[in-house]
Amino acid sequence: MENKRENSALRSYGQKVLSRFKEFRVSSTMDKIKASVISALGGILVGLIIMMLINFQGVIDFIITLASGKFKFDPNTYIIGSIVQSAPILIAGLSVAFAFRTGLFNIGASGQILVGGITAIYIGHLISLPGPLHFLVALIGAIIAGSIWGGITGTLKAYFNINEVVTSIMLNYVAAHLVKFLSRQKLVFDLFRSQTKMLPKSATIPTLGLDRLFPHSGFDISIFIAILTAILVFIILEKTTLGYQLKAVGYNPLGAKTNGIKYRRNIILSMLIAGALSGLAGGIIYLSGANATQIRVQINIPGEGFDGISVALLATNSPIGVIFSAIFINFITQFGSLVEGASTFKKEISDVIIAVIIYFSALSSITLYYLNVRKRKRLKHNSELNKEGDE
Hints:
Distance between the termini: 49 Å
Order of helices and strands: HHHHHHHEEHHHHHHHHH
Largest sheet: 2 strands, antiparallel
Number of strands: 2
Structural class: mainly alpha
Helix content: over 70%
Low-confidence stretches: 13-26
CATH class: Mainly Alpha
Shape: globular
Number of helices: 16
Radius of gyration: 24 Å
């Protein structure tokens, strides 16, 4: 009898938690946009203040140089190129955001990118297939490899309750050493350049003539793949039962369990999907036509995985918001090159600005919380006024 009462109480508690979760998930999109914009503008403002403190005259000279037209500004390089080259960090941001939305912190995106990248390179060299089919198979291989690597973290979390932050960051270094070993194999190794060989044209992501239409931009279809992926992730999280269950498990595991949602399965599935997204980012980095990167024989953890964290934070973990935050972060990076070419500042100043934006992005959730509190107070006040008016 007591067991029945306990089960009934647990079920009732779980239903309350899930109902709170439903209320929590319906947050104002406009409030999220406000929080992100405030964070971005705050980061830029502080970054500019830092620049002025370092070298005030340098900032003035930079503005004069741009205004006078002495510096050659190529829109294909600085605008179109920034948008196209944001594809990898866009997808890495989706990976981090997806994990965040399901209650996990995927700090191992860089390792998943490496594993996905080396898999894509091996498929590119091992298999001979016609045109688009070759790059698609290589990209699918990258997705599967990244998913498996992410699944290791999910399994350890689900069955042994090992913190995913610890395992995923350690797996970054395991991936780096593994990729160093694999990249030195005769099949893919370029002895003279001490890096992986150039891929055959059929294995690279098609440009469809966009690189000729926008010279110096490195335009290919990777940015379209990234945007479609963001839309797909949005649909999974917001419009499917699977997405609801994954978020419910992340929000309150006990409440999810008592309502029949499989905790372990969903934890593993969440990291499998997050890993698959990072693997896709790795495939795009190493297969992306004019922007393709070779893996150098050294212990090197790609920065795109960590950039994905700032992208996700700035977007408040919104899949659609990630599209804009990734492009914005990449614009800031390109701004560093622009500053170096038109002033005495080094391009690393963009890293300083991005670092400040990351701190402000981390505060965006707090900003969003206070915006929601103010909104509730305003609604409550209006409700009380309406009641008084009725009386």
